[in-house]
Structures are given as C-alpha cells and as structure tokens.
C-alpha cells in the first residue's frame, strides 16, 4: 500500500516537530535528535517531551504529548522513547493531528519474536490512525528544503537535488558525508530502519514526483519479492534516474538446478538483469553510487557515447582514453573542422587527436575557448577535462613558502588561482550553454580541496571527480540511462 | 526457434535409414524423458561418417540405457560444425518469476559465466540489450573465417523463449544448449524442457 501524500509532507516539511523522549544527557539519542533539529536552521516550531519536565537546550519540555500547548502546530513526532510506550504515544499524537512519526526506538523486528509482534501492532495502529510511520530502529530524516535535520547522527548535508533512501542508517550517513565533502547536495534523506511500514520503494516513489528531487540514491538488501520490487523501480525510473547500491550481491550463490540455465541463475545475476531492464543504475560500491547520483543531479544526460578528452598533460589523457575504451563509451574521433579550429588556437605540437593534449601550448584564454569549440562540435556528446588546479597547486606552494609575497610571487599566485577559477566556471557555463556534460577530474579534489580549481568546481555546484576513471564510470552510468530512456521513448 | 533436423529411431537399421536421408557426417544421441544431461553420461556420438559407424554407435547407445531411464529411443541429426556456441533458456525463479537467459559458451557456459538475464515478458529492445550486455562481444564478430553472428536471429530465439514461457504456464524451464553458430546463425542442437506434471493450468 502506498502511503498518502500528506504523510510525506508531514515527514519532510512539517510545520512543527516534537521530540518524544528528549533527554538531558548529551550522549543520549533523545538529546542528540533535539540538538540536531534546533542547531541546523529548522524554522518550524519545536517541542519536546520528557517524563520529568524541565528545560533542554532552551526548550521547555512537557511530560507528554497531551500536555503540548493547545495552539502548538505539530506535524511530525520524532520518537526516542522505549518501545513499550509507543502505542499510547501514537494515539496521543493522533489526537493532536500529528501525521508522521519517525521511530528510532529499538526492540522491534530486529530483536526476535516479541519484537516482531510489537512491530506488527505498531504498524497496524499507525495505519488505523492515518500516521505515516518511518522506522522503527531508524536513524532519522533529513530534508534540506525545510532545513530539517531530525536524526540521531551527523552530518547535515548541503542542500541539493539528491533524494536518499536506505535500509541501513549508516549508508545514509556515508552518502551525506560524501555530499558534505563534495558539495553536491541532498534534498531528502531517510534511514528507513526496519522499514516496517514506510519502505525504500515507497520513498523512491515519493522522490519520483518530488519537485525538490532530481535523482534518487538508495541502498537496499534482502529484497523479499524481486518481481514486485522491479515493477515499482520501473515506475520510478520512468520519471527520474535512480542509483541503487545493493548489499548481499555475493550471497545466494548458485543453486542446485536441473538445467544449465538454472545453474547460471544466481540471485545477483537475475537482480542485475531486472534492474537493467527497469532502467535503474546499479553501482558496484558506495563511492560509485554517490558519484553516479551526483552526476545525474548536476550534469545533463549525454545524447550519445562520444567523449572528447581535454588535457594539459599527455599521460592523464592516455589513461583516460584507456578507461573510455574499456567502457561502453566511445573515444570520439576528431572531425576535420574541429581539428582545424583547434589548430588556430594552439602551436602545432598539440596532439591533433583525441585526447586533445594541449601540450603546454595554452595561453590566457585557450582552455575556455577549446572547451567551447569541443562542446559545440556535433560529433562530441560529452567532455572530460583534466588538468584543472595544477597551476594553483604551485601557487599554493608559493603562498606558503618563505618568499611570499615578494619577488612578484603574490601577483602570479593570484593570477593562477584566478585562471583556475575561470576554467571551472567556464566548464559549467559551456556545459549549460550546449546541454552537454563536462566532467572535471583531478586528484586535487581530495588531495587539496582548498585548491582554487576544485573549490571553484564545488562553487558551480558540480562534482569535481577525484580521478578520470571515476569520471568515466559516472559518465558511463549517465549514458546507459540516457540510452535506456531513448529505447523506451522517454526522451 | 531454429532446431537441427532430428529423426527419432528405435533400432540401428532405422538409424542407418535416417542417416542416409540426413547425410553424413551425423550424430546419434540416446533420448528419453528422464535423461537430462546426455554429454555428461557419454550418450552423444559425434561425427559418424558411414552406415557402419552409425550401426556401432546406435547399438552402443541402446546398450548404455539404464533401467531407470525408462523408455528410450535414439535421435539421429546432422553433425553441425561451428567454432562458437551459445546457451539460451528460461527458468522459473522463486523471487522473480519467469526469467530468460542468454549466455556464451554452450557446454562451457557455466565455467565462463558470461550471461545476461531479464524478467519475462521481454519488451521490445530487451533481447537486443541482453545480447549487448554480454562481455564477450568479440565472439559476435567475424571469427576464424566464420561470419559475424546474426544478433537479430539470437534476439528471435530469446523472444520465442519469452513467448513460450508466457503462453505455456506449465513449462517451468527450457534449456537450449548448445546453440551452435553455423554460418553466423544460431541452431539449437539439444533442448531440455521441464514441465510441471499432473497440474493443468
């Protein structure tokens, strides 16, 4: 059963939140949850219950939900109370018009037979009361449009267009940490815990029609009904890209089977085929999953597989060409007209081939000009740009050296940093102008995130890829999905 | 689904008669509802060049039948030659229902493990995307003097499997193994069909 939409509104954009079971002890979830809601800019009303009353973090607590002020407007309850009292709590919440509950409490389905029974009762009650129930045993919900950080873990990510849904709370944290590091932000994130009522597919369904979300990113494991899951995924991907990371890929190995087909039919192979068929993007690991989602969120879909590589140094280009050749992308062949046009901008020693190796022949404006020439060429579908930040790296060494700012060093440091900023901005603008992906890759993205190049990429709201092969992997995911959309008449 | 021409015989004399019509070289296989894996039991005789060879092989095969095999016969078929083999089939999975498969390698398929699955029914383009997903794409190009594999013909086999799986709810699985590539075209030379018995739907 798909939860009603108003429940999602209450979960993600509540007018007010009450933390049930707030604690005075800063190590307890009931304290951390209240702290995170209050400290990250949530603008709605915040209330808290505590058996003994008193003030926590400046909030005057009340002993129970029934004691909330009569004029309090609360849509979401964040539950940190022991499982035994939660049924009464939900009934009280219902009386106050609360439409969504996030339950962190443990002691449910994860803890044996009694817990399973309690969980079923809680789900049935929430259903009867018309309350959207997330969890139990979940870590929380994040919703950047409302600056809501209702979770018992960090971090609060930058705002963006990725919707995260996970059965494992720690994977939500992992994805949010990557968002924090890369600057490519999050719209909503939910750690579904035991997913007793609100499931990962329910969340993906919501994200598919959520105006704040452009791409979904999900972690799943132990899927009970593969065919039903695949059918729901298909509905989501027809609307928006979806990146999936699945745990347990290597479990459930070969089965005893009468046929050869049966012997080859591992759970993972069938799942993989089902997800390809449904148009989902399946990532092999956590960073690949985040980077694919970040690329969907920040780059246009390529209209074809032909990639142009622009590099300021030969070796980087060669390795990138190798990675493209190993993928389902194509290393574009330069058209004569593009080659002639580049000839006019560079000394004859440039590679005259793809990768377009500038071979140190660039002057002040060459990189933006070549990015623009390549992007507008009809034989190029996407660009990978290498070499950003290399001059700022030297600038950084000079700025921190003992000769700074004398001997003309200050002026050259400023110039290099200004140039790298300009290149990153040009890449973003040209991508936008021609509707083609331009991915910038440099290890400085992690080796020195404060380098002017990667920093400027972050400021343009794009992902700066830590290596060219990671850029190739992300771009290949976009191309695969673009092709799927095309084959299904969705572009 | 393209199959090699086969004749069912019940004696060495009938086998020779069939071989004369099919032409040499030919193959002979012991056939029975309870015999699943012929190669593993040595029940396939290849490259039979003459009536004498057919007689010896077929006599041997009938001699190799075990009581638990039940009623048996011998299949006589032309000896198809091709350097490449594929495997195709469908099965009924507990989680995903009926799923169709294409794989590289025929009898070596399980060791190679280069396979692609899709849920049934296949939609337009699904069969083609399965074939493109296989890692050993070089095998589909011109190979050792043989033409490229006609991917459209392979797609037809997959769509035919999909149609059978949907139309015949009591057929649990079908194994076409190997699909030998002859002049670029896939031809099934052995099939294993698993039927749910005693239930009509």
Task: Summarize the SSE layout with pairings.
The complex is a heterodimer of chains A (491) and B (201).
Chain A: H1 5-12, E1 16-20, H2 29-39, E2 45-49, E3 54-56, E4 59-61, E5 76-79, H3 86-95, E6 100-103, H4 113-129, E7 132-134, E8 140-143, E9 148-151, E10 159-166, H5 169-182, E11 186-191, H6 200-208, E12 215-220, H7 226-237, E13 242-246, H8 260-264, H9 267-277, E14 281-282, H10 286-298, E15 306-311, H11 314-326, E16 330-331, H12 336-343, E17 356-357, H13 366-376, E18 382-386, H14 390-399, H15 409-434, E19 438-441, H16 444-447, H17 452-459, E20 464-465, H18 468-487
Parallel strand pairs in A: 1-2, 1-5, 5-6, 6-7, 10-11, 10-12, 12-13, 13-14, 15-16, 15-17, 15-18, 18-19, 19-20
Antiparallel strand pairs in A: 3-4, 8-9, 8-11
Helix pairs in contact in A: 3-4, 5-10, 6-7, 7-9, 10-18, 11-18, 13-15, 14-15, 15-17
Chain B: E1 7-9, H1 12-22, E2 26-31, E3 44-48, H2 51-64, E4 73-78, E5 85-93, E6 97-104, H3 109-112, E7 115-119, H4 126-133, H5 151-167, E8 171-182, E9 185-188, E10 191-195
Antiparallel strand pairs in B: 1-4, 2-3, 2-4, 5-6, 5-8, 6-7, 8-9, 8-10
| Overall CATH architecture of the largest domain in chain A | 3-Layer(aba) Sandwich
Radius of gyration of chain A: 26 Å
CATH class of the largest domain in chain B: Alpha Beta
* Overall average residue pLDDT of chain B: 91
Largest interface: A-B, 25 and 33 residues
Globular, elongated, flat, extended or rod-shaped: what is the shape of chain A?
globular
Helical residues, percent of chain A: 40-55%
CATH architecture of the largest domain in chain B: 2-Layer Sandwich
Indicate the CATH class of the largest domain in chain A.
Answer: Alpha Beta
Secondary structure class of chain A reads alpha/beta
User: Approximately how much beta-strand content do the residues of chain A carry?
Assistant: 15-25%
Classified in CATH, the superfamily of the largest domain in chain A is Succinyl-CoA synthetase domains
Which sheet architecture does the biggest sheet of chain A show? Answer: 7 strands, mixed
Radius of gyration of chain B, taken over Cα atoms and rounded to an integer in Å: 18 Å
Total helices of chain A: the number is 18
Q: What fraction, in percent, of the residue positions of chain B are helical?
A: 25-40%
Sequence of strands across the biggest β-sheet of chain A: 9-8-11-10-12-13-14
Q: N-to-C SSE series of chain B?
A: EHEEHEEEHEHHEEE
Gap between N and C termini of chain B, in Å?
Answer: 24 Å
The averaged pLDDT of chain A comes out at: 95
């Amino acid at each position: 059963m798909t939860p009603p939409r108003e429940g999602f509104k209450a979960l993600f954009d509540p007018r007010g939140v009450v933390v049930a079971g707030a604690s005075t002890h800063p190590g307890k979830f009931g304290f951390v949850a209240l702290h995170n809601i209050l400290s990250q800019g949530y603008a709605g009303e915040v209330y808290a219950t505590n058996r003994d009353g008193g003030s926590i973090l400046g909030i005057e607590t009340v002993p129970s939900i029934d004691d909330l002020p009569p004029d309090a407007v609360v849509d979401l309850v964040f539950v940190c109370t022991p499982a035994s009292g939660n049924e009464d709590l939900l009934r009280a919440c219902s009386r106050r018009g609360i439409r969504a509950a996030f339950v962190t409490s443990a002691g449910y389905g994860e803890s044996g037979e009694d817990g399973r029974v309690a969980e079923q009762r809680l789900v049935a009650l929430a259903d009867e009361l018309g309350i959207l129930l997330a969890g139990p045993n979940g870590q929380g919900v994040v919703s950047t449009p409302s600056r809501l950080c209702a979770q018992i873990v960090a971090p609060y990510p930058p705002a963006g267009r990725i919707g995260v849904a996970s059965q494992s709370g720690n994977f939500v944290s992992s994805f949010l940490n990557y968002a924090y590091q890369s600057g490519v932000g999050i719209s909503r994130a939910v750690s579904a815990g035991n997913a007793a009522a609100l499931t990962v597919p329910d969340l993906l369904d919501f994200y598919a029609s959520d105006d704040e979300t452009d791409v979904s990113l999900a972690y799943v494991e132990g899927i009970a009904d593969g065919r039903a899951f695949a059918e729901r995924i298909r509905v989501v991907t027809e609307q928006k890209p979806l990146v999936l990371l699945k745990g347990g890929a290597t479990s459930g190995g070969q089965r005893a089977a009468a046929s050869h087909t049966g012997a080859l039919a591992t759970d993972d192979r069938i799942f993989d085929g089902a997800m390809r068929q449904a148009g989902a993007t399946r990532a092999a690991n956590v960073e690949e999953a985040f980077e694919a989602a970040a690329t969907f969120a920040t780059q246009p879909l390529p209209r074809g597989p032909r990639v142009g590589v622009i590099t300021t140094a030969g070796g980087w280009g060669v390795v990138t060409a190798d990675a493209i050749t190993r993928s389902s992308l194509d290393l574009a062949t330069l058209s004569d007209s593009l080659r002639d046009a580049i000839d006019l901008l560079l000394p004859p020693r440039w590679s005259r081939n793809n990768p377009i190796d500038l071979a140190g022949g660039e002057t002040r404006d060459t990189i933006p000009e070549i990015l623009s020439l390549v992007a507008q060429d009809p034989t190029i579908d996407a660009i990978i740009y290498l070499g950003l930040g290399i001059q700022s790296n030297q600038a950084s060494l000079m700025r921190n050296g003992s000769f700074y700012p004398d001997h003309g060093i200050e002026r050259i440091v400023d110039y290099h940093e200004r140039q790298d900023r300009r290149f990153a901005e040009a890449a973003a603008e040209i991508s936008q102008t021609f509707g083609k992906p331009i991915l910038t890759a440099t290890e400085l993205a992690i080796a020195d995130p404060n380098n002017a190049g990667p920093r400027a990429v972050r400021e343009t709201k794009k992902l700066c890829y830590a290596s060219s092969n990671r850029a190739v992997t992300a771009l290949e995911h976009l191309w695969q999905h673009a092709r799927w959309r095309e084959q299904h008449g969705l572009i | 689904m393209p199959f090699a021409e086969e004749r069912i015989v019940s004696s060495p004399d009938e086998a020779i008669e069939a071989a004369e019509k099919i032409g040499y070289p030919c193959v002979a296989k012991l056939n029975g509802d309870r015999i699943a894996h012929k190669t593993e039991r040595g029940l396939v005789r290849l490259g039979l060049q003459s009536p004498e060879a057919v007689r010896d092989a077929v006599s041997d095969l009938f001699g190799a039948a075990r009581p638990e095999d039940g009623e048996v016969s011998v299949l006589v078929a032309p000896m198809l030659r091709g350097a490449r083999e594929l495997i195709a089939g469908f099965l009924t999975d507990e989680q995903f229902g009926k799923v169709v498969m294409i794989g590289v390698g025929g009898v070596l398929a399980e060791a190679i493990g280069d396979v692609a699955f899709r849920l049934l029914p296949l939609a337009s383009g699904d069969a083609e995307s399965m074939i493109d997903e296989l890692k050993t794409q070089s095998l589909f190009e011109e190979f050792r003097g043989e033409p490229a594999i006609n991917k459209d013909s392979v797609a037809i086999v997959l769509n035919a499997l999909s149609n059978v799986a949907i139309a015949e709810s009591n057929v649990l699985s079908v194994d076409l193994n190997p699909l030998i590539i002859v002049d670029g075209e896939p031809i099934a030379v052995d099939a294993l069909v698993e039927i749910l018995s005693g239930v009509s739907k």
